[in-house]
Amino acid sequence: xxxxxxxxxxxxxxxxxxxxxxxxxxxxxxxxxxxxxxxxxxxxxxxxxxxxxxxxxxxxxxxxxxxxxxxxxxxxxxxxxxxxxxxxxxxxxxxxxxxxxxxxxx
Length: 106
Known about the structure:
Number of strands: 0
Oligomer: single chain
Shape: elongated
């Protein structure tokens, strides 16, 4: 958004996959009732049960900012495209995790 506001390009795209990524990884933590077989420790569920809600909230903030920008700049059009739905994943313990702790762009 900083670049959009500063440079006002003729065309820009915004791609996010963080919601889908969160849903794939943490569905079982958010929706344990979806499973007949549940092989995940309670501690993991307690730690990650709000991840999908958090990523949806962040997306909502990003989207709101983009909409506000387009509303203030009528020469822009906002086109939203989406594909695929999401079903529950398997309820197996996931032990890997990647964190971006200090991104330089913030």
